[in-house]
Amino acid sequence: MDKIDKLLLFLSKSKFRGSFHLNDKMKEYVKGKGIDKIKQDTKEIIIQRLKVKLPNDGKQTPMKQVHPTFIAQHATGCCCRGCLSRIHHINDDKVLTDEEINYITEVIIRWIKRQL
Fold this sequence. Notes:
This protein is mainly α. The protein has one domain. The chain has 6 helices and no strands. It has helices spanning 3-12, 24-33, 35-50, 68-76, 81-88, 98-115. The longest helix has 18 residues, at 98-115. The protein is globular, with a radius of gyration of 13 Å.
């Protein structure tokens, strides 16, 4: 079990983080699009919404079933720069590096794969 697997197990036990799940429609969406497309979407969402700290930090990620990545962001603590700082120890005062973007994407994709 690596660092990400341990983190996902820990977060799944949280009352808030553990309450998020993909519904059947979202699971079908992932299967229909393919995990590579979902990974590409996820990376784009992270770059658009989290690469820099936005003025509306903490409110930029929808909580409703819009795209599986948004649900996964809440489940994994990758929904805003504040949560990234608290849960993943990624400084919220700087621009995300490519390495950090790839890490966040991997955390989200692993959570989505577990939901399938």
